[in-house]
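Problem 12. The chain below contains 394 residues. Write out its predicted structure in token notation.
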Amino acid sequence: MTRILVHDDYAYIATREALEIVDVSDPSSPSLIGSAYSDGYKSHIYLKDDFVFITFPAMRMRLYNVTDPTNPVELEEYVMSNGIAEIEVVGTLVFTTSNVLGLQVFHLNDYSTTSDIGRFIPDAEARAVIHNEGYFYLVDSHSELWCLEHDCDEDELYSREEYEIGTQSDNPDSDFDLIPDGWEVQNGLNPLVHDSQQDNDEDDLSALEEYLAGTSILTNDTDSDSLSDSAELLIYGTDPLNLDSDFDQMPDGWEVLYALNPLSYDGHLDQDMDDLSNLLEFQYNTDPTNSDSDFDQLPDGWEVQYFLNPLANDTHLDPDFDTLDNLLEYEIGTNPTLADSDQDGFLDSWEYNNGFDPLNPVVGLSQYLVSIPGWLFISILVAMGLIAVFMIRR
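Solution.
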């Protein structure tokens, strides 16, 4: 079958034997000005810029360079995976329809090979396809119209959006700045301007460096660990996308602040020897390099053990009301939350003030004798003795 299309002053005719180019600038006197051998029945002819595409029912497509219409040159013959009914070309993307495989999308790789990059199968046989303003309109054999978008360049922008923005739907990096168009749009950059060296978040990383690292150009601390992205990448070697690079449950920034190692699992260590591990110091917001974070002479671990506040000066408080303040309880080893630490029936303060051990639950005779219960017992014994003597005399 012979196919023809006319564009400007030229008619492109695909005959059984050749591609012919006719000058029709003077419609009353058309003249053949160039031709190229092309055998076989043709199913479609398509012109895109300086290239002519001719398809064949036998699953072939030929590409010709017609920059010089007097000397069309065959560039390549492609073997397609299906018989082609119709063709539409957008940039380096070729959209074909067939009865079996629906709408197929091919990428022309430097006009030497093709890559099958996608397809859409309608409910009936695909017949005609045309591109307009970012959309593809497909008609099937039931005359149903399908309106389609695509992201054939895999830049996370669909064809309609690319059309509206002005980017290329067959090129993931329209401005050739090594950053995909979609990433630029999502992060407020201009996909049509070479802006890879911008540093919008002032973290000393260019947009290209942020793209390669996976960090955000909208904030200088992507993982919110109190270390800037550049510090993590260039100084500490930590992961700017993970606030806890060593998975020890302590944020990288906190470890760096207190001279711990954000790349070593050191949550169980206790470098200030206050009986609180580094992890517990983080959880209580105490200083892992200072055994007494609130400078009240009570170690953080001791305060936490007895439910005191390691971040407030509570030295002179007396939560158990035994008249011994917290500092004195710490110094003598008693429990600041129990008035009778050894539970021997005597207050810590009484034992301490009378020279006895408030941590020894064994009550000695001397301790008992000087106590109020001891005096009462002695008094009772004396009274009973006096009564006995009185009764004997009678």
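Discussion. The CA atoms of residues 155 and 172 lie 5 Å apart. Students who got a different answer should revisit the alignment rule from Section 12.3.
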